[in-house]
């Protein structure tokens, strides 16, 4: 079922104003927290179902809930074949967009101060938090149902850590993009030792986070703690401005494909391919039927003046109509979700610019998400650098650079020729080498080139000295 207006991410403008005016020593009052969570519930419940559909959980995939056509039959045939187009759309985008790590670095311009220290702490942050895994998880969650959460915190060793969160448990209160929160709420459910539900909510502002526990519609304040950042440390990352998933517009097509294929399977299982018909003849002897199966011969006793005959009755199935219908559904699923169909023969034979043109729809979709990721990253570095500054480590968040590389099939010959042309045109080698898709760290490549030059220089000196020594002797 498609998302309705109430299931879109809600407008929290009124709640934000109330939080601004009422937040105090014990955070916000329980009634305000309850109303914020209730307003988010329709969006949260729908997003949970979409995530369950991605996982393939029974009850979340519509075909799994299908009832048999003839319920009165004993043990009715009711095949439920789920074709995971939904998962393919999500996983294809995740692998294409985030399959290669995002490269984080620090600008080397004059405006960037202490670049060496800043580069080291940024590198340590990326490695300690395994940002590749974090970015892939956020891409997957956002692709499934429209947005993900990202929480920053200080671990027991004093390191800045980052954690991706499910969007259906994340509420961002802001008048702007959800990547720049003013306040944020995270709420989730756990089971106690007796198996009872215990709900927990965490409310974040720019200095503290407030913890609440109880039932979903009635949580009480527990404690208040500083989070050691200068900004709200829980942000959202949107898949697009509408905050909807990549497969939502083709859900009805996927469901129809599942129904048609399941009906065909029911038909195959419920009917034999052919029935034997006896005309003007009656055989009521099981032994005779068994002899017919073994010998292939049939004895029909005379039945009077009317001639008897035996024939097979086969069902005339219009398989061409079914196949064309499934093909049309499959083509439209890939087309309207902007996902390449790798089984398409024309796709497999394309290369170079032609292949990139076939990926134009996917690239457009990824481009929108990249813009959201960059916006969220700007806020991320602002948050984490505020914690580093308390340790007298200064990092300008506006000087942190990011480089996204699509997980695209390599065309090394074409790329090498392009790089050589750029160098011949007078562009710096560092810029030219950055065009190579298989080069992740241009600085490291330039360093290796300089080291090789120095090593070659030493080798030339050694050879000349050896030649001079032999000549003198």
Report on the structure:
46% of the residues lie in helices and 16% in strands. The chain is an alpha+beta fold and 473 residues long. The chain is flat and about 110 Å long.
Provide a short characterization of the protein structure.
This protein is α+β, with helices and mostly antiparallel strands and 473 residues long. It has helices spanning 13-22, 30-55, 85-98, 115-128, 131-145, 251-270, 286-295, 319-336, 345-348, 352-358, 360-389, 412-424, 429-433, 442-472; strands spanning 103-106, 147-154, 160-165, 170-173, 183-191, 197-204, 208-215, 218-226, 234-238, 274-279, 309-314, 400-403.
Anisotropy-based shape:
flat
Strand percent estimate: 15-25%
Pick out the low-confidence regions. Answer: none
Number of strands: 12
Largest sheet strand order: 4-5-6-7-8
Tell me the major beta sheet: 5 strands, antiparallel
Q: Helix- and strand-based class?
A: alpha+beta
Average pLDDT score: 87
Itemize the secondary structure elements and their pairings.
Blueprint: H1 13-22, H2 30-55, H3 85-98, E1 103-106, H4 115-128, H5 131-145, E2 147-154, E3 160-165, E4 170-173, E5 183-191, E6 197-204, E7 208-215, E8 218-226, E9 234-238, H6 251-270, E10 274-279, H7 286-295, E11 309-314, H8 319-336, H9 345-348, H10 352-358, H11 360-389, E12 400-403, H12 412-424, H13 429-433, H14 442-472
Antiparallel strand pairs: 1-12, 2-3, 2-9, 4-5, 5-6, 6-7, 7-8, 10-11
Helix pairs in contact: 3-5, 6-8
């Amino acid at each position: 079922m498609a998302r309705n207006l109430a299931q879109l991410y809600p407008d929290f403008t009124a709640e934000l104003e109330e939080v601004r005016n009422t937040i105090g020593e014990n955070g916000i009052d329980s009634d305000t927290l309850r109303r914020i969570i209730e307003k988010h519930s329709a969006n949260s419940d729908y997003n949970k179902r979409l995530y369950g559909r991605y996982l393939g959980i029974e009850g979340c995939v519509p075909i799994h809930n299908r009832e048999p056509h003839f319920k009165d039959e004993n043990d009715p045939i009711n095949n439920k074949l789920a074709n995971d187009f939904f998962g393919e759309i999500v996983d294809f985008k995740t692998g294409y967009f985030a399959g290669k790590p995002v490269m984080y670095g620090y600008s080397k311009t004059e405006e960037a101060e202490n670049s060496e220290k800043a580069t080291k702490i940024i590198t340590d942050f990326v490695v300690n938090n395994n940002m590749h895994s974090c970015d892939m998880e956020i891409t997957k969650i956002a692709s499934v149902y429209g947005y993900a959460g990202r929480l920053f915190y200080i671990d027991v060793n004093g390191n800045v850590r980052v954690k991706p969160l499910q969007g259906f448990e994340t509420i961002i209160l802001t008048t702007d993009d959800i990547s720049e929160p003013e306040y944020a709420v995270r709420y989730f459910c756990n089971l106690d030792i007796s198996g009872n539900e215990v709900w927990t909510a965490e409310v974040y502002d720019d200095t503290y986070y407030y913890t609440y526990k109880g039932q979903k519609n009635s949580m009480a304040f527990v404690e208040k703690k500083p989070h050691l950042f200068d900004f709200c440390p829980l942000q959202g990352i949107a898949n697009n401005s509408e905050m909807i998933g990549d497969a939502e517009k083709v859900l009805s097509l996927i469901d129809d494909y599942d129904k048609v294929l399941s009906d065909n399977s029911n038909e195959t299982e419920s009917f034999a391919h052919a029935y034997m018909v006896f005309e003007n003849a009656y055989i009521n002897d099981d032994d005779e039927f068994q002899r017919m199966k073994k010998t292939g011969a049939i004895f029909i006793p005379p039945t009077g003046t009317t001639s008897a005959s035996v024939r097979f009755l086969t069902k005339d199935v219009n398989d061409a109509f079914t196949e064309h219908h499934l093909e049309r559904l499959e083509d439209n699923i890939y087309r309207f979700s902007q996902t390449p169909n790798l089984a398409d023969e024309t796709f497999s034979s394309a290369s170079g610019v032609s292949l990139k043109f076939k990926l134009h729809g996917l690239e457009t979709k990824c481009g929108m998400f990249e813009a959201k990721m960059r916006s969220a990253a700007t806020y991320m570095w602002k948050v984490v650098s505020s914690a580093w500054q308390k340790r007298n480590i200064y990092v300008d968040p506006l000087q942190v650079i990011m480089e996204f590389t699509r997980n695209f099939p390599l065309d090394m010959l074409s790329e090498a020729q392009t790089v050589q042309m750029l160098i011949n045109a007078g562009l710096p080698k560092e810029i030219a080498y950055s065009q190579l898709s298989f080069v992740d760290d241009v600085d490291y490549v330039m360093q290796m080139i300089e080291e090789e030059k120095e090593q070659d220089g030493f080798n030339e000196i050694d050879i000349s000295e050896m030649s001079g020594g032999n000549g003198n002797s």
